[in-house]
Amino acid sequence: MPLDDRFWRRLSDEGLLQPSEVEAARARLGREGGSPDTAILEARRHSGPQREQILQIAAEELGLEIASDLTDPEPRALARLSTETCESAPLLPLQLEGDTLIVAAPASAEDAIEAIARAEGLNVEHRLALELDVRK
Predict the structure, then answer these.
(1) What average pLDDT does this structure show over 56-60?
(2) Do 95 and 74 form a contact (C-beta atoms < 8 A)?
């Protein structure tokens, strides 16, 4: 589910982006694709707390949980997907719980997550993370 007009209005209403910056970020997404969070962070520098606020707003709009720790993924989870798959999505496998793979990914990775679930025969649970953090 893509982020809609309400998401962009909330960013402006909460002072995270000026209306002209919202317009620039949305135009960049239309031209280049990618993740909304990357377009937002390219439109204006944001502090750590502001990044968390952007992530929280996106999570609320999408009905997703936020990925809590990207620094210590389980080796079993990492082994389930190739590096190429993770980089192209982009996503980071965090945990493997039975037949459920928990991944951290930006909002734009939804189609890739569905394709991975079909190809791997796993349930894949999407936890929201900033694209820049997933690619680190």
Answers:
(1) 95
(2) yes
d(CA 87, CA 135): 7
Round to whole Å and give the CA distance between 136 and 133. 5
Are 39 and 29 within 8 A, CB to CB? Answer: yes
| pLDDT of res. 136 | 80
Q: ∠ CA 64-107-52 to the nearest 5 degrees?
A: 70
Sheet of 92-97, strand order: 65-66, 123-128, 100-105, 92-97
The model carries a pTM of: 0.89
- What is the Cα–Cα distance from 130 to 58, expressed in whole angstroms? 10
Cβ(91)–Cβ(135) below 8 Å: no
What is the DSSP secondary structure assignment for residue 24, as one 8-state letter?
Answer: H
What's the pLDDT tens digit per position in 71-118?
999 999 999 999 999 999 999 999 999 999 999 999 999 999 999 999
